[in-house]
Amino acid sequence: MKFSIGGSLKLAFRPWVEGLENIPAEGPAILASNHLSFSDSFFLPAVLDRKVTFIAKAEYFTSPGLKGRLTAAFFKGVGQLPVDRSGARGAGEAAIKSGIEVIERGELFGIYPEGTRSPDGRLYRGKPGGLARVALATGAPVIPVAMIDTEKIQPPGKVIPKLMRPGIRIGKPLDFSRYHGMDGDRFILRSVTDEVMYEIMKLSGQEYVDIYATAAKRHIADAEKAKAAGRAAKAERDPSGA
């Protein structure tokens, strides 16, 4: 199923790729990517000859009805693993455990260090948990990846994608073996994560914002609520709209 989906995506969108030679022909590696769109987890596997496993929220695999079953089949077909995100710490531990298992099988593990999609196309601070802990626990190389223009193809809330060419830049592998076994040191975890985010920034050309994307989303949501409240108050004061 991966090959049929990947072939269809490549035929329809014709993604361009730089740095494919940086993906090892065999053996484990961690692909750490920026996250612009829901479709990122499909375009990257589509251009690779090897299977890459991403983590996906469990709701994608358990939704009821025909649409739910089709969605679950699609995610399984492209190699995504369900993770229950009902508890923040539990979700993180489950993702780390799954990532280590993928690496121990000698496969490619894909992860988004930002933890969620960028709300505005900028690159946000990487979370120091999953990426760094999997890398330091396993010794696997980390390969930075930059998705280009995927947010223009399918912005949040849009169901039907726009036909245009996205891009993918794959950087050289980063070796963190010097920190192997130090996955309990929060300063090391932060250092590793920041180094990876710096490489992603260079590949993507994105503006970097030194806050978490989840915080940025809260700020944006609060601003929208404030605007809506202001409009409602104005309408109440002047029902005529004059």
UniProtKB/TrEMBL annotation:
Keyword Nucleotide-binding among UniProt keywords: no
Gene Ontology molecular function: acyltransferase activity
Alphabetized Pfam families for the sequence: Acyltransferase
Occurrences of domain Phospholipid/glycerol acyltransferase (ranges): 29-150
KW Chaperone (keyword) present: no
Superkingdom, taxonomy of origin: Bacteria
InterPro entries in UniProt: Plipid/glycerol_acylTrfase (IPR002123)
The entry's keywords: Acyltransferase, Transferase
PANTHER family, per the entry: 1-ACYL-SN-GLYCEROL-3-PHOSPHATE ACYLTRANSFERASE (PTHR10434)
Full protein name: Lysophospholipid acyltransferase family protein
Gene source species: Streptomyces ficellus
Record lineage: Bacteria, Bacillati, Actinomycetota, Actinomycetes, Kitasatosporales
